[in-house]
Amino acid sequence: MIKPALSGLPLEALQETLKPLPAYRARQVFKWLAGGVRSFDAMTNLSRALREALDARFSCYSSVISAQFPDPDGTVKLQITLQDDKRIEAVILADALQRRTACLSTQVGCPMGCVFCKTGTLGWSRNLDSAEMVEQLFHLRSIQPDIANIVIMGMGEPLMNLSELRTALGVFTDPEGLGFSKRRITLSTSGIAKGIRDLADNGPDIRLALSLTTADTRLRERLMPVTLTNPLPVVKEALRYYQHRRRRRITLEAVLLGGINTRDEDVDALVDFVKGLDAVINLISWNPVEGMTFEGRPLRQPSQGEVAGFMARLEKKQIKVTQRLRKGRSIAGACGQLG
Ligand code: SF4
């Protein structure tokens, strides 16, 4: 029998689920789970009889770590197996100051089919529930307790699974549990206008990134098919609405593909797209994945000169631009390599 996992429930939902137990008992369970405890037996401020009663009906977790891949640069990728034997990946990234960021997945596979992304080649299998999202962070914390930031940028399109993600974010941000500040959580979308507006209207008030890659519509339609149903002007309007409601700077991520989206036209289109937005552009060199092609030609990573030149041209036009360091490549844990 599969017992429902309690890991993904925010405090209020846990109190409701555990009724007629008094609310303070649910709070105790919530705090144990947030502290990383994985069995009711270890919850020593509950009576033995209560621990056994909980164990008969519920489980703490619904997933297990099935493989661990450390990279010498400090990145760690976990392969996590779910109750139905499906597998997902979650990653810890470390920056130059050794601040650690957890990169979490929201779906098994992904339906969006971006041509430069390994996850996109897998297709979509199903959405994750909140327990499966929360447990990724718990698993990562069991390897590295000191995690400062969360990015929702792993496998899947988060805005296609916003309801379960909201529940998981409720667990992450509860001051009685993990207590993550919303400012330390970033959601990255491929550009679902309706979802961006939903986030603007209904929160939570986390940071937003758009995986833009190129603002040249024709090229983006070929690289990211989401553009066909969510045209860039509609996405931009949604971003403006988000900024009007949330007053937060957004990040526009551009995965640079050698010889494809580093042309002058791409610079001009980006400059045009940024107008009217409070945004910073984050350049990410494409991380090689064996066998990936674009319209019959093998994809290649951009040369250092290509990236530097692209950045310089944007800066010359007074655009705020940063560059993401390459991390986790040896373990296929870098952006676009999960799967
Ligand atoms: S880049 Fe993101 S949205 Fe696109 S296929 Fe990969 S996981 Fe899906």
Describe the structure in your own words.
The protein is α/β, with parallel strands linked by helices. It has two domains: 47 residues, no CATH class; 268 residues, TIM Barrel. It has twelve helices and 14 strands. α11 links the parallel β10 and β11. α1 crosses α2, α5 crosses α6 and α7 packs parallel to α10. The chain is elongated and about 70 Å long. The protein starts with 10 loop residues before the first helix and ends in a 16-residue tail after the last strand. The mean pLDDT is 95. It binds iron/sulfur cluster.
Topology:
Elements: H1 11-17, H2 23-34, H3 48-57, E1 64-70, E2 76-81, E3 87-94, E4 100-103, E5 107-109, H4 118-122, E6 124-127, H5 130-143, E7 149-152, H6 162-173, E8 185-189, H7 193-202, E9 207-211, H8 217-223, H9 226-229, H10 232-246, E10 250-256, H11 264-274, E11 279-285, E12 293-294, E13 297-298, H12 304-316, E14 321-323
Parallel strand pairs: 4-7, 7-8, 8-9, 9-10, 10-11, 11-14
Antiparallel strand pairs: 1-2, 2-3, 3-4, 5-6, 12-13
Helix pairs in contact: 1-2, 5-6, 7-10
The protein binds iron/sulfur cluster.
The site of iron/sulfur cluster has 12 residues, from α4.
